[in-house]
Amino acid sequence: MDVFASTDGQESDGHEQVVFCQDKQSGLKAIIAIYSTALGPALGGTRFYPYASEAEALHDVLELSRGMAYKNALAGLDLGGGKAVIWGDPDRIKTEPLLRAYGRFVESLNGRYYTACDVGTYVADMDVIARETRFVTGRSVEHGGAGDSSVLTAWGVFQGMRAAAEHVWDSPTLAGRRVGVAGLGKVGRHLVAHLIDDGASVVATDVNERALAWVRQTYPQVDLVSDATALVTSDIDVYAPCALGGALDDTTVPALRARVVVGAANNQLAHPGIEKLLADRGVLYAPDYVVNAGGVIQVADEIEGFNFDRAKLRATKIYDTTRDILRLADAEGVPPAVAADRLAERRMAEVGRLRTIHLR
Ligand SMILES: NC(=O)c1ccc[n+]([C@@H]2O[C@H](COP(=O)([O-])OP(=O)(O)OC[C@H]3O[C@@H](n4cnc5c(N)ncnc54)[C@H](O)[C@@H]3O)[C@@H](O)[C@H]2O)c1
């Protein structure tokens, strides 16, 4: 893995800084990767995960930090992209000393990197990390934090879906459309509420019985199907993957009946090339990292002192960003995923360049 080149073999500036952190006594082994600070301090969560090897942990943190730079750029934030991984099983090794040791390493970067929650880390962990560093978001409401980020993630996904509906059906509403939601977790549930309010009919699936019980109880009008395969092959206009990554692969895409795919899940495309397969089938795919940026918008707002209305206003702009990307994709004859990358790179270059104007 070449840290100084791009992570995908394509032309790119590579990462700015990668820091390996170790505290033997607490068992901490962490890697903090800063892809870009062109737009401001790098923001991205800490993933706590039992990677099979150090190489695997490094690969993940390099990919994830690069993704955050693109996500934050398109979210209109004055923040660059970074990410961290803690290598180990959180259920076995997560302790106060370990989290605080990690917090001291974050502090040592002096604000070049802000951390937040990710897989394996929670709001309560951020409160512990914050005892050692100022550069942490995603804290509890009691500590001035934004709380559950799924609220604005779902709102942003809904805005992205409205923009996609306008692009395909000339009207920014899901009223009268049938939307298939895979995954009724924190984000999926809020999304179902927005869709019902907008007048859509919803069909959904989840592997968790409690999630299904919630929807039966709260929205009896939602149809339920056995699994994601049944969902993608049913008569839906929009498919919203809100469970795990890799929802769009060589099996699902050919079977998909929806015209539009907009969902919260990260890394929906199972491998490069799927975006072309979708375009060839006439399926409009709104890139996941564009429409699911409401969560990072919510936690980023903490840096200014959290204000829900301000954060919601910013997440509402995901509608405009998605619309611009879909138009650019049409104008340049490329899939929306490629147009989104181009727009993010343009903002990082054009706004990042302004720092060369000397102030004093
Ligand atoms: N929470 C956020 O703020 C946020 C922000 C950006 C992206 N995301 C992404 O959105 C997705 C959902 O996040 P969440 O916070 O709602 O997670 P969650 O864990 O609360 O919910 C996920 C749901 O998906 C269900 N599920 C798992 N496998 C499934 C399968 N094969 N078929 C159907 N359902 C399945 C689970 O039972 C669960 O109910 C994740 O991919 C996450 O990375 C979340």
UniProtKB/TrEMBL annotation:
Keyword Methyltransferase (UniProt): no
PROSITE patterns: GLFV_DEHYDROGENASE
Alphabetical UniProt keywords: NAD, Oxidoreductase
Gene3D superfamilies in UniProt: Leucine Dehydrogenase, chain A, domain 1 (3.40.50.10860), NAD(P)-binding Rossmann-like Domain (3.40.50.720)
SMART domains, per database record: ELFV_dehydrog
PANTHER family from the UniProt entry: LEUCINE DEHYDROGENASE (PTHR42722), VALINE DEHYDROGENASE (PTHR42722:SF1)
Family (UniProt): Belongs to the Glu/Leu/Phe/Val dehydrogenases family.
Record-given protein name: Glu/Leu/Phe/Val dehydrogenase dimerization domain-containing protein
